Amino acid sequence: MKRCVLLALAVLSACGSVPAPASPDKLGGDLSVFAAASLTEAFKAVGGGFKAAHPSSNPTFNFAGTPTLLTQLQQGAGADVFASADQPNMQKAVDSNLVAGKPRVFATNKLEIVVAPGNPKHISGLADLARADVLYITEAPDVPAGKYAAQVLAGAGVKPSPRSLEADVKGVVSKVGLGEADAGIVYVTDVRAARGRVSGVVIPDAQNVIASYPIAELRGARNPAAARAFIDYLLAHGQQTLQGFGFTHS
Amino acid sequence: MTQPRQERVPAALGILAGLGAAFFILPLAGLLARAPWGDALTALTAPETLDALRLSLVASLTATAISLLLGVPLAWVYARVEFPGRNLLRALTTLPMVLPPVVGGIALLLAFGRRGLLGMFLERAFGITLPFTTAGVVMAETFVSMPFLVLTVEAGLRSLDRRYEEAARTLGAGRWTVLGRVTLPLIAPSLFAGAVLSWARALGEFGATITFAGNFPGRTQTMPLAVYLLLESRPEASFILSLVLLAVSLAVLVGLRDRWLGSA
């Protein structure tokens, strides 16, 4: 009995993870990049290209919602580069004295309505999100995507009632993909990354917002040379890769 | 239980044990050190905090009640009935103890979601959808917490001296009388420990809840979800809420140990 309860206590809690630190100060070696969740697929591809160009380098990525990354950095997580999904969070990083040099915008993104494959509910625009038969979910207002979605809806004068405020765009895409929700607002790039599992409904430019992604080298970088090289690579050779994932040129 | 002899601790063992303890104490100290005590009251009485607290209490207590209702009979079957596949069934029903909660949430979606095995039928026949509802939160919490109750109660039933029950039977008590007047009172400590453990697990549930029930203040946003999302917007408030959860869990574990597991 006692042993059993103790075993139960041991299993009672489970925990998250913390990224690995980087090492020596040359172009080779580990390079730790903290990047917004919406960059996941694109940055993995860019990282592959960077490694091909600098074979002794070893870029590793920590993808999460931008505010989560910011909190991790503010709490002293070791990273060389920070790529944010919006300007305000990058500004917070600058204000917290985390950034070395000036952040540079490397890509822009737009929003799109994500729906089930083939759009069975015939959603044609933002106004349909407020329909009673459409189960709409969105991101929490503190996540950049959620903030942009609120802007877009306010601009269009549509007031849908979301059933869930997901912690990040991936939560919205996966729940729509599983058929648990009918629609959500996510980035164009998320819809493209989940092609086949979901469809997208275009939001006209007049109603849309442009999300700018800034990137910066971090003050505490353990591999500043590689950090700068990665940013340069992204701004030059990485652009084509980014466009392949649906980002627009900065 | 016999009292162990007081032993001299070998230095190496003591150091390793100290490191082990520090590994757990330091994060708690960090939380205590960084918590903005001045804003504690404001953070705790904010409407969204109170909503999350209320929802957490209601959902976790309901989950515990369901766990008792379904888990005690299950434990009884495991302890008393020999049948082929019992070990496999027990393993399957206690799987959530070791499964990542997110996986549990996905499994729940595939079973009870709108496109799920049973969920599809529930929606068509009764118009019931469980994801994004408080009922969904209760289901997610029950799913991950009931195994703790089942295992604890089963262990209690197995260590019970069955002669008491037999004596009651020979004295003319019926099956239900024996269960209600002899068996359950005798295993009360395991019942209590199991219920409290599973309640604590339900209270701390995060992964299955956010996956299956989503996140909406007042409806599916429990304390752990609020802590996670506040970390993004107002980290200080999130530290305070973490401390509340921590205090509750600590009270539960200390209380359990002293009362039911024999203090050290």
Biggest sheet architecture of chain B = none
Span from first to last CA of chain A? Answer: 63 Å
Computed CA radius of gyration of chain A, to the nearest angstrom: 20 Å
Label the CATH architecture of the largest domain in chain A. 3-Layer(aba) Sandwich
Oligomer: heterodimer
Task: Sketch the major β-sheet of chain A.
Answer: 9 strands, mixed
What distance separates the N and C termini of chain B?
A: 11 Å
What features would you describe in this structure?
The complex is a heterodimer of chains A (250) and B (264). By secondary structure, chain A is α/β, with parallel strands linked by helices. Chain A has 2 domains: 26-108 and 211-244, Periplasmic binding protein-like II (D-Maltodextrin-Binding Protein, domain 2); 109-210, D-Maltodextrin-Binding Protein, domain 2 (3-Layer(aba) Sandwich). Helix content of chain A is 36%, strand content 24%. Chain A is built from 9 helices and 9 strands. In chain A, strands 1, 2, 3, 4, 5, 6, 7, 8 and 9 form a 9-stranded mixed β-sheet that branches. Chain A is elongated. Mean pLDDT of chain A is 87; it is low at 1-25. Chain B is mainly alpha-helical. Chain B is built from 13 helices and no strands. Chain B has helices at residues 11-34, 40-45, 47-80, 86-94, 101-112, 119-126, 134-158, 163-170, 175-186, 188-203, 207-212, 223-233, 235-260. In chain B, helix 5 (101-112) packs across helix 7 (134-158) and helix 12 runs antiparallel to helix 13 (235-260). The mean pLDDT of chain B is 89.
